[in-house]
């Protein structure tokens, strides 16, 4: 009980002491231990006092929502690997937010978790061979726009819902 009250007091002090400048959230408080984000990615993890926290953790559906006590915004694939290794070793629950969509009526079981926000991987590239490279943070609408602007369209005629690119007349 005392530890919980102390944590609330520290959290409140941290909230009121924060400025408009984003302050990285480098400590993860678990019920059993105190973990610290690895230095390579500590500046990409933020707690609830960060002014952008709600914006970065809000999902499109609020039905039976998960809750988050930190958000991790990796910039590179290596950052993702480091973050996942850290979260796994800390025994911390996490949920990945790609483009922002995704629905499951059971997401409410994820509480006080870390959100891995993949917004820095929001890209779609039409390659010279007409294949497409899609980042894990891209939204489907962006994929449709890039493919369409290249005079191609998506087809789901392949087995197992693999998309094929087909040329189209404009």
Write out the strand line-up for the largest beta sheet, numbering strands in chain order: 3-4-6-5
Q: Count of DSSP E strands?
A: 10
Envelope shape: globular
Task: Name the structural class.
Answer: alpha/beta
Note poorly predicted spans. Answer: 1-33
SSE order, one letter for each helix or strand: HEEEHEHEEEEHEE
Mean pLDDT: 77
What is the rounded distance between the termini? 67 Å
Tell me the radius of gyration: 20 Å
Biggest sheet overview:
4 strands, mixed
Number of helices: 4
Outline the structure in words.
The chain has 170 residues and is of the alpha/beta class. 26% of the residues lie in helices and 21% in strands. The strands form four sheets. A four-stranded mixed β-sheet has the order 3-4-6-5. A two-stranded antiparallel sheet has the order 1-2. Strands 7-8 form a two-stranded antiparallel ribbon. A hairpin with an 8-residue loop joins strand 9 (152-155) and strand 10. The longest helix is centred in the N-terminal third of the chain and has 16 residues, at 2-17. Residues 1-33 have low confidence and may be disordered.
Helix-strand blueprint:
Elements: H1 2-17, E1 27-29, E2 34-36, E3 45-46, H2 53-57, E4 68-72, H3 77-89, E5 94-97, E6 113-117, E7 124-126, E8 132-134, H4 140-149, E9 152-155, E10 164-167
Parallel strand pairs: 4-6, 5-6
Antiparallel strand pairs: 1-2, 3-4, 7-8, 9-10
């Amino acid at each position: 009980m005392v530890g919980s009250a102390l944590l609330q007091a520290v959290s409140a002090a941290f909230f009121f002491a924060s400025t408009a400048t984003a302050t990285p959230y480098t400590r993860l408080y678990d019920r059993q231990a105190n973990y610290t984000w690895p230095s390579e990615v500590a500046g990409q993890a933020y707690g609830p006092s960060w002014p952008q926290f709600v914006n970065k953790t809000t999902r499109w559906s609020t039905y039976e929502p998960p809750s988050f006590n930190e958000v991790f915004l990796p910039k590179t694939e290596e950052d993702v690997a480091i973050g996942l290794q850290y979260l796994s070793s800390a025994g911390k629950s996490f949920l990945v937010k790609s483009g922002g969509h995704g629905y499951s009526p059971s997401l409410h079981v994820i509480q006080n978790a870390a959100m891995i926000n993949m917004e820095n991987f929001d890209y779609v590239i039409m390659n010279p061979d007409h294949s497409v490279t899609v980042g894990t943070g891209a939204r489907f609408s962006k994929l449709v726009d890039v493919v369409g602007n290249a005079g191609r369209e998506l087809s789901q005629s392949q087995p197992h819902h693999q998309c094929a690119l087909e040329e189209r007349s404009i």
